[in-house]
Amino acid sequence: MSNTQKHRTTVDIYGQQYVIMGTESPSHIRLVGSLVDDKMREIHSKNPNLDVNKLAVLTAVNAVNDYIKIKDQLERLQTELQKEKDY
Predict the structure, then answer these.
(1) Do the beta carbons of residue 18 and residue 11 sit within 8 Å?
(2) Which parts of the chain are coiled coil (predicted)?
(3) pTM as predicted
(4) Residue 51 and residue 40: Cα distance in Å, rounded?
(5) pLDDT tens string for the chain (87 positions)?
(6) Quick one: which of 13, 87, 21 has its CA closest to 55?
(7) Do residues 59 and 71 make contact, with C-beta atoms less than 8 angstroms apart?
């Protein structure tokens, strides 16, 4: 199977079903959907009065924040590794 072949996968996120198309495997898409659902439920448990739109935005903000932290950490590790190779 080619990596460019698109898969259509249905996921349940916060009680809604979404059909997601992508080149990633269906199991990967289901994992992403599950993690988004978990994060939305976690945020809702701490802020039960948020409407769904605000909850979705806060979930996205959390996800991007985590992404930036991991990206920065990866860049630092790559820089350290390059320094080690240069010695």
Answers:
(1) yes
(2) 60-87
(3) 0.83
(4) 11
(5) 455 899 999 999 999 999 999 999 999 999 999 999 999 999 999 999 999 999 999 999 999 999 999 999 999 999 999 988 887
(6) 13
(7) no
Instruction: Tokens for 47, please give them.
Output: 């802020």
Q: How far apart are CA 36 and CA 59, in angstroms?
A: 7
Angle between helices 52-86 and 26-46 (to 10 degrees): 120
**Would you state the structure tokens that stand for residue 38, as one six-digit string?**
């978990």
CA 47 – CA 18 distance, rounded (Å): 24
Q: Which two tokens stand for residue 46?
A: 């701490």
Query: Would you state the structure tokens that stand for residue 28, as one six-digit string?
Result: 């990967």
